[in-house]
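Usage

Read records sequentially. Each one opens with the input sequence:
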Amino acid sequence: MGYLTFPLVQLLLGMLLAALAAGGAYLLGWLDLSGAFAAFGVGVIVFGLGGLAWSLVLLTFFTSSSLLSKLFKGHKEETEKYSAKGARRDASQVLANGGLASFFVLLSLFTRSDGLAWCGFAAALAAATADTWATEIGALSRIAPALITTGQPVAKGVSGGISRLGTWGSVVGAVLVALVAWLAWPWIGNDRSLWAALAIAFAGVVGSLVDSFLGATLQSVYYCPKCDKETEKSPWHTCGTETIHRRGWRWLNNDWVNLGCTLAAALLAIILVGGGSLLG
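and closes with the structure output:
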């Protein structure tokens, strides 16, 4: 790869696959209309410009996370009253989770050592998967989550809350993406490829913890006076009452936190692996 060597046929097939994936996700209720258009754009870049290996990693994240969201939807009635958005991902959510991955695909086209880009790409999606799995599986926990900064119990769905079950979910999600990345990449025989996969998995888990830390400290949190509850929703709560800003940076919503999660993981994986020089 590198230096714009992708064939035209691959690009056209990638556009077709992106359209099928985005359209199918919209019909299944995984994405709203804006999310479908954003997913199509991400898909064209990853499927059409990246190719099979990159596509498999992206599909692992998107399919597994969407299936979990639908499968455990009945366990999240209370958490969805807190969260700013529901199970149907919109454009900003898609870009927050997949935008950085798309950047690394584009970067790989202009660099001789695309191992660096591959590690950043896979780690970003490992973190997005770990974060989603932590949320979805953590909703099944019978024990209240604890705030990552203080250890104090908080309600399910509160930003910065983590649970043992959710943490294990994040580990499994990150390992799944790292495993697919390891199996899909042509460096399977490279003696450093296993180390790269371990670094990707570790970075994915760390990225999800960064997400929780930002959620507990800097993310914007609002208050509903009618329900007497904190929420991410603004300007209106689920009940229809206007919410009041309570703490955090107003601009730092959940989408920006998700982007910080994937960015932290990508940078950590690149540092751990030592850049593309160790891979190819």
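Summary fields computed downstream for this record:
- Residues 275-280 have pLDDT under 50 and may be disordered.
- The radius of gyration is 19 Å.
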